[in-house]
């Protein structure tokens, strides 16, 4: 389908026609958007709806963007935090994992009680 676009002149379409293509593509996924948002997507932007990120293909078709490893890790850790009732600072773990775990070990060492 995408290669056929070369023959139908995506690069020769006017901005209005490209915006129309974006709207049609969004409707296929049951999404609605303004012309401003469609123009932003044409300029390389992305949008997030209900935690799912979307962007345009090189021919103006809207598609879902796969989550990055970091985003997936944060989501899993947040779920664990909620289920276990433990406060987990995912931003600190992602930013400085070694430092985070060293601080955890120091805290655990200071709380240790020697049993005789």
Brief overview, please?
This is Photorhabdus luminescens subsp. laumondii TTO1 complete genome segment 14/17. This protein has 116 residues and is mainly α.
Query: What pattern of helices and strands is seen along the backbone?
Result: HHHEEEHHH
What number of domains? Answer: 2
Distance between the termini: 75 Å
Pick out the low-confidence regions: none
How does this structure look, described?
- It comes from Photorhabdus laumondii subsp. laumondii (strain DSM 15139 / CIP 105565 / TT01) (Photorhabdus luminescens subsp. laumondii).
- This is Photorhabdus luminescens subsp. laumondii TTO1 complete genome segment 14/17.
- The protein is mostly helical.
- The protein folds into 2 domains: 3-65, no CATH class; 69-114, no CATH class.
- The protein is 55% helix and 9% strand.
- It is built from 6 helices and 3 strands.
- Strands 1-2-3 form a 3-stranded antiparallel beta sheet.
- Helix 2 crosses helix 3 (35-42).
- The model has no long low-confidence stretch (mean pLDDT 84).
List keywords for this structure.
rod-shaped; 116 residues; 3 strands; 55% helix; Photorhabdus luminescens subsp. laumondii TTO1 complete genome segment 14/17; 3-stranded antiparallel β-sheet; mainly alpha; 6 helices
